[in-house]
Design goal:
- The complex is a heterodimer of chains A (487) and B (238).
- With 487 residues, chain A is mainly α.
- Chain A has two domains: 2-241, no CATH class; 285-480, no CATH class.
- In chain A, 75% of the residues lie in helices and 0% in strands.
- In chain B, the strands form two sheets. In chain B, strands 5-6-7-3-8-9 form a six-stranded mixed sheet, with helices on both faces. A three-stranded antiparallel sheet of chain B has the order 2-1-4, covered by helices on one side.
- The N and C termini of chain B lie far apart (37 Å).
- Chain B is an alpha/beta fold.
- Classes of the chains: A mainly alpha (487), B alpha/beta (238).
- Chains A and B meet through helix 12 and helix 13 of A and helix 2 and helix 3 of B.
């Protein structure tokens, strides 16, 4: 097992270093540490508006949800095992060829990722808080307890996700029942207050039984042991469920490409390519992934706003126009997904150029994002009682979205993931993305002080962005006209 | 008339030279075979001739079109079966043929799809998404996609790979008829026994250079078959 684990850790490190770069990858824990230090230093102010118990609850929920998010090895492993073409393969698929069991490789994946996330997130976070001790006066024992309790919540999320996702390999009904039960437990707490949240999150129960909430005692020990037991049970359950032989699921499909093609008359020469995009997105499940990858930064944005408002007490007037600009900025994440649905080698045999395929993805992006972006901006405006600026916010959102996606498409073509890790492309992307976004953000803050100036300024920025969008769109042909689908 | 002409083709990938001064001519209606050991440059040459790759130096003409300057025009005129059978994962077999037919603007598309589905016995799998097809079925689908628009020139990279003997025979018969009808085939293969029966002319490539070219008899010389000739030609250079 130790050899397998060592190789899997190497594989994971190389994969991440390939996606970004060694330096970028190693910078990640440093960033987490610095962020954690910042939270520590401003914690007094944060705790004035958010009681410690609530902050700890949010922290444990976040750790648990993070664990849930990264522990779905049933899905991840299945994806690797079903990878039948493409140029990458992973150790987890080796039992198909070697005398070793899938149980072993799945356990290896779990342990590997637990170690990875502890080293990359939990340890740097703890070190960041420890570094803030001279300023905050936190007790080291409290920080130690925080680490242990957070570890418990994180591992519980990961283990539960591991177990439930492996159920999916065996039976979708069992998977549905498990998801319903977990959702019911959280609904019993969140909606009806029928059960205390500590009974779902033993890590939180343990934390509430430790300093600074209470002197260490039996309650914390029992909660800790219960948490460890649950984690072990979930991991054992998952390993029991993992099949000895993996048989990929066959997916019969109705013939729907001609029907979708027929409906897209307006797309003219892009019609069949666009129809294929929609069918691909639906069958590959990418729409759900896109939804979460769009919503996650929006949640992060909301958290940052909360932190700036209450933690830093910065007198910043966040409004609908600010959110609209940010939503447009996040559109790049969705374009990235559109270029990652499937391999594109087969296009090389057809009389279609790279620019045509790039351009066919743009309407797909618009159809997929316009609705959700509009709902978010209108929703945030309504929640903040800021509907008066909606008339300005919606054009900002729409034009920045289109600009961002066309600019990303122009710079990165059909290999956004790879090109955004090229320092040269990244530098140009940063300048082209940050400058207008910064301009819009600053202007949005001045809307109440000088509305005429703000509206004129925003109109000017939007006009420049619209012109830039058109220029970049036209430039796609020249930049990618000689690019190959296979090189 | 020459279907394919290559003059001094050279291709470099960084410090690696994949092709070095390749000269080649294929007449219209000819069945041409390109052979070589692994990494010799066969696929690179095929990809340059089909407009998938630009050469570092040299020039080519395929059906009178420069594939480096007008790759889409070349691809519209020819059919290509690539080395790796990789139809799009999330389309069904029938949908993939529909997609190819729409891109190529094939007239009477439904009939053409049915013809090739029937030819390769793909009825049972026409509603299965390509990700779930076996390698052999995916290969049949790639062949069907290349034949769908009835091109005058076919580029085939290992077309027999993954096919069982029944479909190897069926494909061989089809290609013989296709050649007899005056169409041109350019094929890369390691299956020299099959190739020997099909090809009018062949070339052997090694280390990015064409080391022999001519009719099967000219290349075979005194050897009993093409395989022995190939082993001699390539072995001499090892």
């Amino acid at each position: 097992m130790s050899v397998l684990l060592r190789l899997m850790l190497k594989e994971e490190y190389r994969m991440h270093a390939h996606y970004s770069s060694r330096r970028m990858f190693l910078a990640f824990p440093v960033i987490v540490g610095v962020f954690s230090f910042g939270i520590g230093v401003t914690s007094q102010r944060l705790l004035e508006v958010t009681p410690l118990a609530d902050a700890i609850l949010s922290f444990h929920l976040s750790a648990f949800l993070y664990g849930l998010g990264v522990g779905a090895f049933g899905f991840l492993g299945a994806q690797y095992l079903e990878r039948r073409h493409g140029d990458r393969n992973y150790i987890v698929a080796m039992p198909a060829l070697l005398p070793m069991s899938f149980r072993r490789t799945f356990l290896g994946m779990y342990v590997r990722d637990a170690l990875f996330y502890i080293a990359l997130v939990l340890v740097p976070m703890t070190l960041g808080l420890t570094a803030s001790v001279p300023v905050t006066g936190f007790r080291l024992t409290s920080i130690g307890f925080l680490f242990l309790a957070a570890l418990l919540s994180f591992l519980l999320g990961m283990s539960l996700s591991f177990f439930v996702s492996t159920l999916y390999i065996r039976s979708r009904i069992a998977f549905g029942v498990a998801v319903a039960l977990i959702s019911a437990a959280f609904a019993a707490y969140a909606l009806f207050r029928l059960i205390p949240v500590e009974s779902i999150l033993p890590g939180l129960a343990m934390h509430y039984g430790l300093p600074p909430f209470a002197p260490p005692g039996e309650a914390a020990l029992v909660a800790g042991l219960a948490g460890a037991g649950l984690i072990a049970a979930c991991v054992a359950g998952a390993l029991l469920v993992v099949p000895d032989q993996y048989e990929p699921r066959s997916s019969p499909a109705r013939e729907e490409l001609p029907r979708v093609d027929a409906r897209l008359g307006l797309a003219r020469s892009y019609r069949i390519l666009l129809a294929k995009e929609f069918v691909d997105l639906k069958r590959s499940g990418t729409v759900a992934k896109m939804f979460f990858s769009f919503v996650t930064p929006l949640i992060f944005l909301s958290f940052t706003v909360w932190f700036v408002r209450y933690g830093l007490r910065a007198p910043v007037g966040f409004n609908s126009v600010f959110y609209a600009g940010m939503v447009g900025f996040f559109g790049v994440l969705l374009y990235n997904w559109l270029t990652n649905v499937d391999a594109i080698d087969y296009y090389a045999t057809l009389p279609v150029g790279v620019p045509t395929v790039i351009r066919s993805k743009l309407p797909a992006f618009l159809v997929l994002t316009t609705g959700i972006s509009t709902v978010f901006v209108v929703g945030v405006s309504a929640l903040n009682g800021d509907l008066r600026l909606l008339w300005l916010a919606l054009p900002v959102m729409f034009i920045t979205s289109v600009y961002m996606v066309v600019m990303t498409a122009y710079l990165t073509g059909l290999r956004t993931n790879s090109f955004l890790f090229d320092p040269g492309v990244l530098a140009r992307f940063s300048v082209l993305a940050m400058l207008p976004d910064l301009g819009l953000t600053i202007l949005s803050f001045t809307v109440d002080r000088d509305p005429v100036f703000t509206i004129a300024g925003i109109s000017l920025v939007l006009a420049v962005l619209a012109a830039a969008t058109l220029t970049l769109y036209r430039g796609i042909e020249g930049k990618w006209g000689h690019a190959s689908f296979t090189e | 008339m020459k279907a394919i002409v290559a003059r001094g083709l050279r291709k470099r990938y960084g410090s690696v030279t994949a092709l070095e001064g390749v000269d080649l001519e294929v007449e219209s209606g000819e069945f041409f075979g390109l052979f070589g050991p692994n990494g010799a440059g066969k696929t690179t040459l095929l990809r340059i001739l089909t407009g998938q790759l630009a050469p570092t130096a040299g020039s080519a003409r395929v059906l009178g079109i420069d594939p480096a300057k007008e790759p889409l025009k070349v691809k519209a005129a020819i059919g290509i079966v690539p080395e790796v059978e990789s139809p799009p994962s999330y389309l069904t077999a029938a949908e993939y043929l529909y997609f190819v037919g729409r891109v190529r603007e094939v007239p009477k598309l439904a009939e053409a799809i049915d013809r090739w589905i029937a030819f390769f016995d793909l009825e049972e799998t026409r509603g299965t998404i390509c990700r779930d097809l076996s390698k052999g079925t995916r290969q049949k689908l790639m062949l069907a996609a290349a034949f769908l628009h009835g091109p005058d020139l076919l580029f085939l990279d290992e077309p027999f790979i993954n096919l069982d003997p029944i479909y190897q025979r069926r494909l061989k018969d089809y290609l013989l008829g296709y050649g007899a009808a005056g169409h041109t085939v350019f094929m890369c293969s390691h299956l020299l026994e099959i190739a020997e029966k099909l090809c009018d002319r062949v070339a052997v490539i090694d280390g990015g250079r064409v080391i022999a070219q001519g009719s099967v008899a000219e290349v075979r010389r005194e050897e009993k078959d093409l395989e022995s000739a190939f082993l001699r030609l390539v072995g001499e250079r090892r």
